[in-house]
Amino acid sequence: MSRRAAVYVRISRDREGAGLGVQRQEEDCRALADRLGWTVVAVHVDNDLSAYSGKPRPGYRALLDDLRASRADAVLSWHTDRLHRSPAELEAFITVCEEHAVAVQTVVAGVIDLTTPTGRMQARIAGAVARQEVEHGRERMLRAKEQAASAGRWRGGRRPLGYAEDGRTVVPAEAAALRRAAEDVVAGASLAATARRFAATGVKSSTGGEVDSRALRRLLMRPRNAGLIDVRGEVVGQADWPPIIPEDVWRGCVAVLRDPTRTTSTGNVPVWLGSGLFRCGVEGCGATMRVMLGGHSGRRVKAYTCTTSRHLVRRADQVDALVHAVIEGRLGRPDAADLLAVADDPERVAQAQTSVITLRQKLTDLAAAYAADAITLPQLTDATAAVRARLEATERDLSSRGGVLAGVLATADPVAAWRGAPLDRQRSILDALVTVTITPARRGRRPGWRPGEPYFDPETVIFEWKADQ
User: 0.85 cut: is pTM over it?
Assistant: First the structure.
């Protein structure tokens, strides 16, 4: 009986990148169609795509569409495992084939008769065996990767950005872009701004795509950047490839990105210096201030307003101008470099680094104690949560003021560096240096004010420096 056949071909990983695997499958399927006297009316391809992963398979969906629309009444594939590795997916395929009397033939496994109970049982057994093979293969792969990790070796996979295909040889341009991005984040730049500067260098992902802020965050979080190797998210030791980001910079970057107080919204981006940073000085409040339209007598201007109530409103341009002047005044002093010395106190840094090592060892010891039945699972869970919280706080401490201020204070002209910094960097520097609180206006007008001039009382803006100034 002549049939209109749709050929389906798939390969999980195309190592050659030329589609040769699926091409060979198609050739064999066409040869089988010739022997059966069937006409090939469509060829559907899913190249470099696993059936086990659960990711959508466009070619497979197109195949089912052809069967449902009766554009084809037969399926040709190289083997049953090219069609399915999931029992649930197989059941849906059986339903379509039953409803439309579809014949199924494979090059290797022969006829798959889904029109009879025996044929369907055989297909289900074959599917279960294929699933088991994949799961065992996955277990073997994970064990092999963990063994490689314990030896500090690369575990294979997609080429990591910053390195060549061997996972060891550094690609200078990519490595420099990642290192600059990590330094920018530590220095207070937002991920969005960092991603834009990253893209400006022309560096693409290892697959040739654009690197947006989310992708950049994942890239910067990789322990391999610092020459470290991890198993299931936990750093377990030194790797045998060279680092492309200094470990202290990488740890600082990770701590910044993990900071729960860090704003990660991709919605409204602050366009004013103190939005979300300045504090409301109304007694008992202390909430942050944001910029919105405000004013009196029909004059609407941008004004800092308390986020909990409109009990405090102050013109944004006047406040920002004052804050810029005060920051520039402090950065222009001869002892400006002392701010960096306070921020990067060697003793504090050394203590924090020692704490990180100690806390990581405690996590290892807890796991060993649980494995030896010395503690219960609830004890392990509670103790691990407590140690992790301390570890994250310590790592955030390592990434604090020093990295933010270094980009300004290490220059010949800190004031010029401040003025030339993008807003997100200025906001981080401001946050590292001082807490700004806006208090209610005093009764009456300040001395020296003349009618007709815009009124602003600088003494209602309070500066609390975060180090001895």
Answer: no
Q: Are residues 392 and 418 in the same domain?
A: no
pLDDT given at position 266: 43
Sign, CA torsion 314/320/326/330: positive
Residues 348 and 374 grouped into a single domain = yes
Q: What is the pLDDT of residue 267?
A: 45
- Same domain for 287 and 353? no
Q: With the CA atoms of 343, 385, 358 and 154 taken in that order, what torsion angle do they form, in degrees rounded to the nearest 10? A: -100
Same domain, 364 and 433: no
Q: Dihedral sign for Cα 434, 438, 439, 445, please.
A: positive
Q: Are 249 and 312 in the same domain? A: no
Mean pLDDT, the chain, whole residue set: 78
Domain extent, residue 426, equals: 279-331+405-465
User: What tokens were used for 305?
Assistant: 């307003």
Looking at the structure, do residues 393 and 415 belong to the same domain, yes or no? no
Is residue 288 a contact partner of residue 301, using CB atoms and an 8 Å limit? no
User: For the residues 257-262, what does the mean pLDDT come to?
Assistant: 68
Helix (H, G, I), strand (E, B) or coil at 182: helix
- Model confidence at 326: pLDDT above 90: yes
> Taking Cα atoms as reference points, which of 422, 423, 433, 359 lies closest to residue 400?
433
Evaluate whether residue 266 is within a structural domain: no
CA atoms of 162 and 20, how far apart (whole Å): 28
